[in-house]
Amino acid sequence: MNENQNSRAEVSSKAIKWDTIIIGAGAGGLATAICLSKAGQKVLVLEKHDVPGGWCHSFYLDGHRFTPGVHYVGLLEEGETTNNLYRGLGIANDLTFFRMNPNAYEHCWLGEERFDFPNNFDLLIERLQEKFPKEKKNIHTYLNLIKTVSEEVQMIPHIKGFWNKLFMPYKTRHMGKHAPFTLNKIINRHIKDPLLKRILNIQCGDHALAPDKVSFLMHAGLMTHYFSGGFYPMGGGGALIKSMTNAIKKHNGEVWTQSGVQKILIDKGSDKKAIGVELEDGSKLYANQIVSNADPEITYKKLIGEQYLSKKLLKKLNKTKYSCTSLMLFMTVDYDLRKAGLDSGNIWKMPNRDENAFYAEMMKSDLSNNNAFEGMFISCTSLKDPSSYDGKYHTLEAITLVDYTPFEKFKNESEQRSQEYLDFKELLTKKMLKGLEEVVPGISKHIVQLELGTPITNEYYVNTTRGSIYGTEKSIWNIGPFAFKSKSEIQNLYLCGSSVLSHGVAGASHSGVDTAAKILGCTSKDLITPDDSQKIQLFDAEDDSDYPEWLVKKINLKRTRAEAKEKLAT
Question: Which fold has domain 3-58+235-320+472-527?
Fold first, then answer.
């Protein structure tokens, strides 16, 4: 009997009632759990997978680590919002991040055109103005608008007091003016050069929606999140999740893995009320509040059932669109990727043509041909996290966006996959490699191991609707006042995660804090006031000159062990 089963048996025998049960151990659910357990609640987190983390979990292939959903995090410098979030959650002391290439945390490849995003707002403007001198004034105006609108959005939850609220429309006037529009509408007002637009919109891959569909506010927030650069956690996403689960346990909360929930229990009285959950093994657990970190489709239609939902909510659910899905190629190579031209910065590879048309093509493309994927995101995690590099083998993650429809016929297969699925997966792997070869010629000859994650993989391990990678589609109709609320229409039932407040590692975590605040009757700021005793360690991935002795030892030990393993093998 494992630890989870022991705990479960104890609960059954003593009929323990929890204050809050949280379904799903993604970043949002774990952030909720930290805040509630710190407030003294008895909290239980239930996770279907055998490890917590959701998209942020890490896994290993022959000793080499990969993380499907953590590629970079922004606003981690002292005083910035993500830094304050982790300090406020009490996990900062357990975290070390590497600052990705400050000169180019994003490499933009548009056909033959190249542009590098620096981790400095003023330098970004200067670099763009140098490349597009005719757009000098427009670049300055547009990027400052992006920054202003994002700052106003972040201001709203912290506006308190009668007079401040009275003047809120004035204080957030730029946000209000631009809120009804798509990114395409706003950028076309300010920028004329088509190539410049494509460069500025390259990060649309971070919400997986074309400029003519995504909310301008959403994209403004995303761009601002990385204006001071990108950071990668030492130990991958798994290290971030470990710090969060440790914080929960420190405050007497519990996290159970391999504990899938099949039903949210509803009191059948006149006032619909969530009272507990039923696990896949049939056991029932009861709580004063239930929080679902699953997406709204799974929460409401699968875990609750339509019979308990209002017509208004059902209508919203039936109209809701989810983000597209993805293919993720995980690779280990015996190749010096620095000499091949890679560094700790991400590479966005796209054709130099209309991006709206290209996004539409990606969702309608014939995946059965042998052509290379034109659009890819490429990340070398062993260069982002120097402590993970063993001196010989590099790890790569390459991603492309796809529609779920071609995978629909495989969704009900068991772990024993059909030959048709395996053949399709092999074809897709070859298409991914062809695209990767255009960035790193000859890399296919140096593959030690590779594995392709498909939309079916996403459904199986992360339990998302149609393998979606960012929750609900980030159009105007799924964000802000139109997003799913953290407090549901069913009493004592709350939601958190990428479909509620925002997506991404930081966005989902902030959502978890916001949900905890709703339960506790306070503000998010009350729950994550930065703790002066907490401090994140930040180092440069490209410069090891200021690494402390413990980090140098860690890196050297990794390489020494790898060398010893090689000798034993020969």
Answer: FAD/NAD(P)-binding domain (3.50.50)
- Alpha-carbon distances of 409 from 413, 459, 462, rounded to whole Å: 9, 13, 19
Largest CA-CA distance found in the chain, in angstroms, rounded: 75
- What DSSP state is assigned to residue 214? B
Distance CA 365, CA 357 (A): 12
Phi, psi for 276 (deg, rounded to 5): 175, -165
Spell out the residues 6+ positions from residue 148 whose beta carbon is closer than 8 angstroms to its own. 174
**Single-letter amino acid, residue 252:** N
C-alpha–C-alpha distance, residues 199 and 114, integer Å:
9
Strands 284-292 and 64-66: unpaired
- Domain 60-75+102-119+324-469 CATH (choose: 1.10.10, 3.90.660, 3.90.350, 1.10.3470): 3.90.660
| DSSP code string of 438-487 | TTSTTGGGGEEEEEEE-HHHHHHHH--GGG-SSSB--BGGGSGGGSPPSB
Domain spans of the chain, in order of start: 3-58+235-320+472-527, 60-75+102-119+324-469, 121-157+169-217, 543-569
Give per-residue pLDDT as tens, 495-546.
999 999 889 999 999 999 999 999 999 999 999 998 999 999 999 999 999 9
Q: How far apart are CA 232 and CA 235, in angstroms?
A: 9
Among left, alpha and beta (phi > 0; psi -120 to 50; other), residue 233 is beta
| Cβ–Cβ under 8 Å, residues 281 and 256 | no
Over residues 457-484, the pLDDT tens digits come to 999 899 999 999 999 999 988 888 889 9
Residue 184: half-sphere exposure toward Cβ, Cα within 13 Å: 12
Burial of 32 (0-12, 13-18, 19+ CB in 10 A): buried
Give the helix/strand (H/E) hosting 292.
strand 284-292
Share of the chain above pLDDT 90, in %: 84
Lowest mean pLDDT of 89-93, 126-130, 151-155, 452-456, name the range.
151-155
Contact 40, 48 (CB under 8 A): no
Distance CA 309, CA 484 (A): 14
Asked whether this chain's domains 3-58+235-320+472-527 and 60-75+102-119+324-469 adopt the same fold, the reply is no
Q: What is the mean pLDDT of residues 45-71?
A: 94
Q: What is the pLDDT of residue 172?
A: 60
